[in-house]
Amino acid sequence: MNKFELIEQASDFPDIYSERPTHLGGEVVFNGMVRTPNLGKEVLYLEFEAYPELFENQMHLIASRLCKDFGVDAIHLFHRVGKVYPGEIAVTAVVRSKHRKECFAACNELVDELKRSVPIWKKEVNTDGSFWVSATP
Hints:
Layout (H helix, E strand, L loop, with lengths): L2 E5 L18 E8 L9 E8 L1 H19 L3 E7 L1 E3 L4 E9 L2 H18 L2 E7 L2 E5 L4
Parallel strand pairs: 1-4
Antiparallel strand pairs: 2-6, 3-5, 3-7, 4-6, 7-8
Helix pairs in contact: 1-2
């Protein structure tokens, strides 16, 4: 079963290890964290905004495709909204399958597709002010 959530506080991240299915042998977890410096400037925080209905709809489309294309069994993605400070987790992606190889490939594609097509906007606030950051380089 796939699961997607927007998270307001770091303490709201679910315990991703509490519901491990015993019939699956592979699990890949990716945590994307806020880093500093960026572009030579100290990052004070990132601020994320999202449109929840579009986020969930797009994530369901992505997960359905990845489960089919890579043969994985479950995709979970949790993304923070609001202010996220350096060292804090902004996104957690979890992919589970019978085997590790499919998990790694699907998780990589999941994070790339998240940045490409999911309606989440990021503003970087640094010591010189703030600016909106493009999801794609």
